[in-house]
Automatic annotation (TrEMBL), chains A, B:
One of its GO terms (molecular function) is transcription cis-regulatory region binding. It holds the Pfam family Peripla_BP_3. SMART domains: HTH_LACI (SM00354). This is DNA-binding LacI/PurR family transcriptional regulator. Keywords: DNA-binding, Transcription, Transcription regulation. Residues 12-67 form the HTH lacI-type domain. The keyword Transcription applies. It comes from Aureimonas phyllosphaerae.
Amino acid sequence: MSDTTDHKTGRPTLADVAALAEVSRAVVSRALSPSPRPVSADKRERVLRAAEALGYRPNPLARSLTTKRTNLVAVVVNHIHDLSDLDLFDRLLGEIQAIGKQVLLLKVGSVDRVEAFLREGVAHHVDAALVWSDFADAATVRRMFRSDLVVMMNGCHDALSPAVVPDEAVGIREAVADAAAKGVHSAALVTGRASSAIEGERVASYRAAFEAEGIALAAVLQGDYSYASGRAAAAAFQHEATPDAVFCTSDAMAMGVLDACRRFFPDDRPSRFRLYGFDNLSITDHDAYPISSIGFDKAGFVEHIVRFVVHPETFVPGSPPVGVPTRFFPRATG
Amino acid sequence: MSDTTDHKTGRPTLADVAALAEVSRAVVSRALSPSPRPVSADKRERVLRAAEALGYRPNPLARSLTTKRTNLVAVVVNHIHDLSDLDLFDRLLGEIQAIGKQVLLLKVGSVDRVEAFLREGVAHHVDAALVWSDFADAATVRRMFRSDLVVMMNGCHDALSPAVVPDEAVGIREAVADAAAKGVHSAALVTGRASSAIEGERVASYRAAFEAEGIALAAVLQGDYSYASGRAAAAAFQHEATPDAVFCTSDAMAMGVLDACRRFFPDDRPSRFRLYGFDNLSITDHDAYPISSIGFDKAGFVEHIVRFVVHPETFVPGSPPVGVPTRFFPRATG
DNA sequence: CTGTTAGCGCATTCAA
DNA sequence: TTGAATGCGCTAACAG
C-alpha cells in the first residue's frame, strides 16, 4: 500500500504512480517522458493506467530543476501598448505554445523596473527572453533571466545575442518615393520618443529618403507614438503653411493628425496634404482611417524569432541582426 | 577554496555564496530571504557581499519546490484579442508584478487546446489562474494548473472558485433608457458568439431593457464581436426598414456598422439611426468612432481580482460572483 | 529493458 | 543565532 500520497499536499507525485503501478520511479519517468525512452509495453501500460487513476500531473518545476530547461519564454515589453501589434503578438504566442513552451509576460516600463527585477532577483529562469522593451540591453536581460538566449527586437543588440528587426529603410524609401511620384515637394515628420534606438534609425531613414527624392523637410514634430500626441502635433498645420505631406512614425499618431485636420478643415474633401503612417495597423483597413502605411510580414518576423528559440545554435556570435523587409501599403491618404 | 562553482552550469548557487562567506547554506538562505529571519549582522553583511561578488541570483524554481509557491499567475484567454481591453490588461499586469508575481499568458482558442494542455501536462504550477477564456470551466482550470485558486472572469463560475464579472445589466438599462428618452421605438441587436455564457446574459439584459422601455426588438443579427462581422450585419439595414437604434454587444461591431452605413448613406449627415456599442474601448474617444458605449471601472475590476490573489482566504465557497457595475458613456452616435 | 543511486538549488526542520 | 541533515519532485547516470 502506498502511503506517500497526501503526505504533505494532496497532489500525487511520480512516486505514488510508481507505487500503484508496482514499478520503479525511473520507469514512470521514462514512460511519461515526452521523448521516447525504453520501457516495456506492459509496464508502460500499467504506468499510464496508474497515472490516470491517480489524476497524476507532473510538476514541470521539479523537472526543470534537473533538466535545466523550464519551457518558459519571457516576453519583455515597455507597456502592453507596445503590442499595438496584437496580430503579431497573438501569432507569436501561438507559435511558442506550439513548440511546447509558455510565455511569461513582463512589462518593464522604465529602467527602474529593470533594476528592481535585478535587485529582487524574482525573475524566473527562462529558456529564452524576447525583448521589445528598449529599457533593457541584452547583457542586462541575460542576467535578469540567467538565460544565454535573448533575442532583441528593440534595436539594441550586442555580439552575444541575436536580434530581429524590421528593415525599415526599404519601406520608408518606397513610401517617400510614392509621395515624390505624386508631386510632393515638402514634408513634415512627426516622430516618437527620440531616445529609442529604433526611432533614431527610423528618423535617419526618412531624412535620407527625403534627400534622395528631393523633398524638403519642412518641420520635425515630436510626439510619443500616441493618438493624442498626433493630434497635438497637427495643431502646427492649422496656422502655419502646411507641407505637401506629413509622415508619422506610427499609425496612431497619423490617426491623430487625420482627425485633427478633419476638425480644422471640415469641408476639405481632397485632403490638404498626403498622410503616411507607420506600422500598418489593422485599423488602417477600416474606412475611417485609410492611412497609407509601412509594415512588414508578421509571419516571417515571428518565424525568425521562433527559429532562434528552437535552434539557438544557428546563431553565430557577432553576426548582424536579422532584417525583415518592410514595404509600403498604399491607401487613400497617401 | 570553493570548487562547487562551475561544476555544471556556470551560475553560482547558494552553496557557492555560503562557501565564499564562510557560513552555512542555511545562513545564506536566511540572510537572503525576503522575510526577516534571524541572522547576526556581521554574517548577513558577509553573505550580501559574497552574493554581490559572485553575481549570485537565486533560482525561483528551486525555491518553489520547497515553498510550494511559484509566484506565477496564469492569465488564460481565448485569443489576445479578448484583451481588446488593453488598458485593463496593462493595469492587471502591473498590479500582479507589484505584488511580486509574474504573469504566464496562455491562449486556449478552443476546447481542444484546453484538452491538449491537460493531456500533455505541460502547464506550470501557478499560485493562481485568472480566466477570461470561456473554453475552460473552473474545475478544468484547477486541474490544469494544479491550483486551488482560479478566478473566473468568463461568466462560468462554480462554488469552489471566485468570479468577478461586470454587472452589465446596469449599463445596458442606462443605454436603453437613453435611447428611449430620445424617442427610439424600435431597435436591432447585433450579438457575438451565442455559445458564450456572458453573451447569453448580455442578450437577455438587452431584451429585458427593451421590454421595460417599450422598445420593439426589430431584428437580432449574429456577429462574432469583430469589425468585419459588424459590417456584414449592417448590410441588413441597407435595404430593409432601418430601426430607430442599433445596439451592438461590442464596440468593434459598432464600428463596422458605422462604417458600413457611412458607405451606404454617404450624405446622411444626421445618422439614420442611433448606434450603441459595448466595451467603451478607448478608440471610441477618437473623432472617427464617437460611439456611445457601456463600460466599467477598470481599476475597480482589477482590484477585485488582485484581492483574490493576495487574500484567497477572503473567498467564501459558494458565494456569488463579485459584480463590477457598468455604466453608460454617451457619445455622438447615441 | 530495469531498478538503484545521486543529485538539481533551495528552505526548513532540529539540535546544538 | 547557527549548522547539519533532510526532503521538495523529478531526471540522469549507472549497473544489472
